[in-house]
């Protein structure tokens, strides 16, 4: 439809955007959002009823948040690389400031301080820092390789460490893992010396051991994953047990829309365990299609920059696409009990306003960086 609205000779901002943006990735991202709305209708009404909020409370809020998320994604996809870097610095500084404020004044929920109230809106600032950190790290690494005297790796490590330090204070171990893994992925693609790769592995190992020894909820989840009999099946293992039952009952084709049982029992059916609702009501085939949509976006993003001349564009795109894929993978793997349970949303599908907006920003940046350039777009 938009293709008929803009001719190839249209030199307006939107005209140039339409003929240079990766419309396949854009279309699949919109499809994932549509899947999110459908699963919100399936999963959230029982949760809302239990909380006395009215059956479609979360459905309405989910649909409302899609509008600004789409707006943020489309607006950021119009940016040039130079403006993306500027935006990343501003969001990083503001995000770290809000994370500090969250730790000091935020409400404690399930033993963590991750959200801060801004009027009627509850914000998780760490979600917004995650994609822009990948941009800043890519910038620093690219400058280091362009100018060997520039301390790009040290600066990249410093920016990553500041963010991870605040994540640990919240604590948010899952996002810490995603962040360090993303940084390691970018280092690997950049061809950084072995020392830095060993440093990443060391940080990851020390962080994992430290979290297991110092954070009781991490200890409990890992112990339960390794030995299911170590926890209370009526409390500690309740959600994952229900989740696995949902996939078992759903089978290949599912019980049918609205026929699921798991959403009536799992408190986070509309958020962390929405994949279980999909498995029970729509079956394995639909679940595999959902996996395919996420896989398409990640692979497509990498293919768009595989021959990219700008190292910054390649590293930033690879970092954010890696985050997108890893976040979806962690959510699905947790739901299937392949890894210890971790409260991480499925991108654009799970309920969560901050996550939705931050993902819109991140994937908008990917769409901007993977636009066709014809050698004229500023990389500086």
TrEMBL record:
GO biological process, alphabetically ordered: cell division; peptidoglycan biosynthetic process; regulation of cell shape
GO CC entries: cell division site; plasma membrane
TM annotation in the entry: 21-43, 63-80, 87-107, 149-169, 181-214, 282-299, 311-330, 350-370
EC number(s) stated in the UniProt entry for this protein: 2.4.99.28
Pfam families in alphabetical order: FTSW_RODA_SPOVE
Molecular function in Gene Ontology: lipid-linked peptidoglycan transporter activity; peptidoglycan glycosyltransferase activity
PANTHER family in the cross-refs: CELL CYCLE PROTEIN, PEPTIDOGLYCAN GLYCOSYLTRANSFERASE FTSW-RELATED
Name under which the protein is recorded: Probable peptidoglycan glycosyltransferase FtsW
Species per Swiss-Prot/TrEMBL record: Candidatus Odyssella acanthamoebae
